[in-house]
Amino acid sequence: MDMRFDTVYYEPNAFDYELGQMLRDKYAYLPWVQIENHNRIPELTAADNRDFQKLKRHLIIGVRKTHRYMPNHKVSDWLVPYTSSGCRAMCLYCYLICNYNKCAYLRLFVNREQMLDRMLKKDAAAAVPQTFEIGSNSDLLLENTITDNLHFTIERFAREGRGNLTFPTKFDMVNPLLALDHRGKTIFRMSVNPQEIIDRIELGTSTLSARIRALNDVAEAGYPVGLLIAPVILLPDWKRLYGELIERLADELSEKITHNGFIEIILMTYSFIQNAINTDAFPNAVQLFNRETMTGRGRGKYRYRNDARAEAESFLRKRISRQLPAMPILYIS
Ligand code: SF4
Question: What confidence tier does 298 reach under pLDDT thresholds 50, 70, 90?
Answer without folding.
Answer: confident
